[in-house]
Design a protein that fits this description.
The protein has about 130 residues and is of the alpha/beta class. It is built from 6 helices and 6 strands.
């Protein structure tokens, strides 16, 4: 009986550790909204919104460049010429921007990072959004 309790405890704790990644709210290297603001202010990070144009028009991080995920590989080098700058990739929930990080890094943007939780987390942190 005690073994079942230990197994259950292990499964529950493992699930709690995996939840941020599975829910799209985190993932390896995902930035918090506060960390993103610091990168923007201190290191002149470039914010790239990988949402579709209609989503971008409905609201986005102030100053974000709009490059839909499907066009990122073709358009990122023209939009962000300095590959040494940090690039913060944003989408609605953090799922697409996590995929976008892989594309950006393949293009040579070593400091590309995803905003964990996406625009939803940005709004929840009461940070400015523009249309």
């Amino acid at each position: 009986m005690a073994n079942w309790a230990l197994i259950l405890l292990a499964l529950v704790s493992g699930g709690m550790l995996a939840w941020p990644r599975l829910s799209g709210g985190g993932g390896a290297g995902a930035l918090t909204p506060a960390a993103a603001v610091q990168l923007i202010n201190r290191e002149k990070a470039v914010v790239v919104d990988v949402c579709e144009p209609d989503e971008y028009a409905a609201g986005h991080v102030v100053g974000a460049k709009s490059i839909p995920l499907a066009e990122l590989e073709a358009k990122l080098p023209g939009a962000v010429k300095n590959k040494a700058l940090p690039v913060i990739l944003v989408c609605a929930s953090g799922m697409r921007s996590t995929r976008a990080v892989g594309i950006a890094r393949k293009l040579g943007y070593e400091q590309a990072q995803s905003l964990g939780g996406g625009l939803k987390a940005w709004r929840e942190a009461n940070l400015p959004v523009t249309k």
